[in-house]
Structures are given as C-alpha cells and as structure tokens.
Amino acid sequence: MNYPTIQLYIDGHWRSAAGAPIINPADETVIGTVPHATKADLDDALAAAERGFATWRKTAPAARMQIIMRAAALIRTRVEDMAVAMTLEQGKPLEQARLEILRGCDIIEWDASEGMRQYGRIIPAGPGLQHMVHRQPIGPVAAFSPWNFPMSAPARKVAGALSSGCSIILKASEETPAGAMQLVRAFHDAGLPPGVLNLVFGNPSEISAYLVPHPTIRLITFTGSVPVGKHLAALAGQHMKPAIMELGGHGPVIVCEDVDPVDVARQSVTTKSRNAGQVCVAPTRFFVHETHFEKFAATFAERAAQLKSGDGMDPTTQLGPLANIRRIEAMDRLVSDATARGARLLAGGSRIGNRGYFYPITVLADAPDDALAMNEEPFGPLALINPVRDLDEAIERANALPFGLAAYAFTHSADNVNRMTGNLDAGNLSINHFVASVAETPFGGIKDSGYGREGGTEGLACYTVAKNVSHKFG
Fold first, then answer.
1. Is there a catalytic annotation at residue 294?
2. Staple 167 to which of 10, 49, 262, 312, CB 3.0 to 4.6 Å?
3. Domains of the chain, first to last
4. Cα 120 → chain centroid
C-alpha cells in the first residue's frame, strides 16, 4: 500500500521540507517523512492567512458553503485511499478509518450549511434609535489537532473556521499527518482561495510559541492533553486571545440496577476497543450497581479477551496497535501500579509480542481510588470496573476527578436520568448508548477538560464575535 508524500500547504501551494520519520505502529517501519516548517514558512503562512481572511470574510456565505460542500464531496470519493493512509500511520482498523472519514464529512457538511445561519438580531429601542447585533468572523485562527483522529479532529476545526468566514493555519500531528494533508488537498481541489487554509507541521512547542502570540492570530483552538492545553491557554491569555480547549477526559460509566449487565458489558467492550481506547471520550471508569458487578465484570473480561488484535490492514482485526511506544509505557505503568495496590486483573495486562505497539483490552476490577489509573487519563485500552451501592455513590465517584468531558449512563428510570442530568459533571452525557457527539450537537468539556465548544450552533459561534451597532437616526 502506498503512503502519500507529506507536504506543507501555504498560500495555496504545496511545499516540501526536511523533517522527521513517520512510523507504522503495526510493524515499526518508517513509511514516510513529515516536513517541519521553518520560521520563514510560518511567516509566509501568517501573511497568507491575513490575506486569505480579507478575501474569505467578504465572500458570500452561499459561495463559501458551495466550496466547503465541494470539498466534502471530494473526500467522499477518496475514502479508500485516505483510510489506507490513516491505518498505516495511526494503526486503527481500516473500517474504523473509513468511518472516521465519513464522520468528518458529516461535520464539514453540517458546518457548511450552518454557516448560512449566522444570524444577528435587532433589539427594540426608543423612537429614532436602533440597536443591531452582528455576528462577524473573528479572524485568522491557529488550530492544533491531535494524532488519534487524523482526519475528523482537524476537520472539526477547519470546517468551523471556514464556515464562519475565518482563515486558518492548521498545525496537525507530526505522527499522523496524512489525514490532515488529504483533508487540505480536498479543499485545494475544491477551489478554496489561496491563504484561507494553511497546513504546517514541526516542533509543536516552537510552532505554538510563535503562532499563538502573533498579532495576526485572533483565536486559538486546541485538542489534546490537559497539561498542554493549560500551557496554551495561559499563553493565549497573556495575549488576550480567546481559545477553544478540547482537552482530556476520564469517562465514567454508570450502570444502574434496572438494566441487563450482560448487554451493557458487551456494548462497553465494543466501544472501549474503538481506536484501541485512544479516545478522549472513551468509557473508562465503570461504576456498576453491586447486584450486577460480578456478572458485568466477568462478561466484560470474557468479551475483551476474545477480540482479535492485529494490523489494521487485516479486515479481521478488531483491535489495532497503539499509536506509539509512549502509550505502551503508560499502560504498563498504570496496570502495574493498580495491581500493586490491590486491583484484580481480569484480562490483558501486558504488551502483545515485541514488534508493533500491540496491547490488549485490559480489565481491572476493584481498583482503589488512589490508583494512578483511577486518577490519570489512561488514553489506552484500559477498563476499570468498581461496584457501587447506589446512584448517589456512583455520581459522587464519577464527579471526583477534575475531568468533565464525557459521561455515560445506562438506566430505564426517568428519575435516574433526571438526577444524573442535573448532577453529573460533564459537557456531554449519553444515556443508554456510547455516542458522545454528532455534527449537529455541541461538544466540549468542563473543569480541566476545557472550555468552548466544537459542533452545533455553539461551535460555530466560537469563531465569531458579536458586534453591537447602535444607530440614532431621524
């Protein structure tokens, strides 16, 4: 399978540069090189974004929508090639890669359409006076996207910015660059004016330190870890830049006594295996009513052990490799700490083989609250299952951490739903299913999981400013 040549994209043109190797996590071979932008490249991208914004903000919303929709249509014709590249660089099974790309298209198309509805309003006033609120694009955006969803994560940022009338410089992941590059290529082929969308790679800390304070940049959007997010948010704050921070999570799952524990456990394993657990909204801390605890844990462990690990290019693979050696090291550290503190290992627990970053779904029961895994986001195939006496205890333990991104619950009680809706600390709560967000709904966290939203009308609003025009006449 061919992996594409990765390039920078600045002011409507592709650029090559020296860089770093790209590793296939399934076999640890080098499949390509990611170019690193120089300071001159960043200066060119900033100048291009400024010019691009001047053009794009004056482009009619309907014309903007047509170009964005055309890009999404092109991506839909290129799903197979894009999915292959994604699996080679990131490891997820090919079918999951296809679904990610199609989900990215859904996001792009919804945002493009919603860009037609950035309405203002008129506020009643006295005779001879009119107050008008206009929503206007905020300006050039610096966007930073992660390695775990190489296409859909940058698609959220690109679609939100472009649909709102902003230009954007996208700094995508150096470990999984093909998804972002192929996304940008579709916009180029769709006829997007030069400078409106720019793509760079390089040393993350150096690029953020240069872009965030630059006066051209008016908004920062970042998806990634809490520590890096806090650093970038502080940097943005120093320069009075608004920011969208979509940071980590430690997804609690509450399993109430009125549901079938076997059915919920099976659903849980399927979702936990998605992207090998390298998902910020992954279900991780399972708080199961004590009457169902043992059955749930046994079913979960049994199903997890049956998953077939392997190269994502193999159509029979259910669990691909982790994306890099750092995730293997993190899993080993968390599992050894938890078992040393008394957690029961029910499945998995160690690396598979010594070539490729393979790690099984690992199931720990009765992990104590002071275990590292119960407090740090695992970002891997780790499930922690603990019993609870009642819903009050489940909510209290779910809320105990500083995270608040996604939470899940399974119940058939309207009273339970009402109590969890009002009391669970999470930006996204899904009940009786594991879908944390769709294109038309807002997505984001509270507490250490960040602020701002992506998706829905709330997501596009983050890329605009409200201008009040008070007009006295007559």
1. no
2. 49
3. 8-247+448-471 (3.40.605.10), 251-438 (3.40.309.10)
4. 29
H/E element, 231: helix 226-238
Handedness of CA 97, 427, 343, 257 (dihedral sign): negative
Strands (E) in 108-255, as ranges, are 121-123, 129-137, 141-144, 168-171, 197-200, 219-223, 243-246, 251-255
Dihedral sign for Cα 11, 17, 19, 24, please: positive
Phi-psi group of 191: left, alpha or beta (phi > 0 → left; psi -120 to 50 → alpha; rest → beta) = left
pLDDT for 189-248, tens place per residue? 999 999 999 999 999 999 999 999 999 999 999 999 999 999 999 999 999 999 999 999
Query: Does 105 participate in catalysis according to the annotation?
Result: no
Catalytic residue selected from 105, 166, 256, 280: 280
Closest CA to 163 of 241, 107, 79, 90: 107
Q: Is 355 helix (H, G, I), strand (E, B) or coil?
A: coil
Q: What pLDDT, in 10s, does the model give residues 127-153?
A: 999 999 999 999 999 999 999 999 999
The HSE-up count of residue 113 (CA atoms within 13 Å, CB side) is 10
Active-site residue identified among 114, 174, 175, 246:
246
Tell me the residue type at 326.
R
Cα 333 → chain centroid: 24
**Which SS3 state, helix, strand or coil, does residue 327 take?**
helix
